[in-house]
Design goal:
CATH topology: Diaminopimelate Epimerase, Chain A, domain 1
Shape: globular
Order of helices and strands: HHHEHHEEHHHE
Helix content: 40-55%
Low-confidence stretches: none
CATH architecture: Roll
CATH class: Alpha Beta
Structural class: alpha/beta
Radius of gyration: 15 Å
Strand content: 5-15%
């Protein structure tokens, strides 16, 4: 049991998310998602969660495990071409995870980790909006390479960031 992690989660509140991502930042992320989705056939979502609850912490739950839950809850998997990608931030840990649906994962499975680390580096400098927007654009580059826009596709998932 990591007591430092538990205290970090107990003291990271929804207000922490609002400070890191004011409404203007959430809108900038939404714009980045909307703009980049015109260049590929993927579907991108961004979700930020302030902290895990105590039971999850005591069970040793990782940000990756939680990201998989959020991927399911937000139905990122529920796209016609299995091309959904979730960028998940667990703010208390400053941990970014990217989860891709099976249609994308087979093509890009090793490309997500460097993007996560670049976003986290921006977060260490307090550049939350810039970090996420850069991450959205980097994810879009992978999607453009493997799933270029061929036709005006419909937007299957909302572009708005989700604050959990």
């Amino acid at each position: 049991m990591d007591l430092k992690r538990i205290f970090r989660h107990l003291f990271t509140t929804m207000w922490s998310v609002r400070r890191a991502f004011p409404v203007s930042s959430l809108r900038a992320v939404e714009r980045a998602i909307r703009e980049t989705e015109t260049t590929h056939e993927g579907q991108v979502r961004f979700a930020v969660e302030h902290a895990l609850d105590l039971s999850q912490l005591l069970a040793g739950r990782s940000a990756r495990e939680r990201a998989l839950d959020v991927f399911s809850q937000l139905r990122v998997w529920d796209t016609q071409h299995n091309n959904g990608v979730l960028i998940y931030l667990l703010l208390a840990d400053r941990d970014v995870e990217i989860i891709a649906d099976r249609g994308v994962h087979g093509h890009v499975k090793d490309g997500w980790e460097p993007i996560c680390r670049r976003i986290e580096e921006r977060f260490r400098r307090g550049e939350y909006e810039a970090g996420v927007v850069e991450g959205v654009r980097a994810v879009a580059e992978h999607l453009q390479r493997h799933f270029p826009a061929r036709r005006a596709g419909r937007n299957e998932l909302p572009d708005q960031p989700v604050v959990l």
